[in-house]
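Supplementary Methods, section 5.1.

A reviewer requested that the exact input to the structure prediction be made available. We therefore reproduce it here, unchanged from the version used in the analyses.
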Amino acid sequence: MAEMKNICGKIPVELHEKVRAEIEEKETSTQIFIRQVIEEHFNRLEGKGEESMEKRTLAVQVTEELFQRVKWAVTKEGIKQKDFIIRIIEKAVEEVEAKWQELEQPEEIDNLEETEEIA
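The structure derived from this sequence is encoded token-by-token as follows.
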């Protein structure tokens, strides 16, 4: 586990009340909430160059049960729903790509062997 450091500072009461309400709503801890906010801040700064990339929208409807399961998982992971879904999609696509690369590789080797036999 990474070494941890403490961070604290005073904020206006109104902002503190908003933070407490969101922490309670998400059923998370102050530590996870603050880490998430800070990580999102730095991810936005790092991702500025990404804004120039063309983006497309994927939209699907899911059952209420699956929606609640995703919402629970997102809360437990302490990340945004968008980031969680993108992580799932990237992992699934990488698995499919790896599978098809393995399946197509023997075909390429067969083609090379046929070429060598002709020569």
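The chain has a mean pLDDT of 85. These observations are discussed further in the main text.
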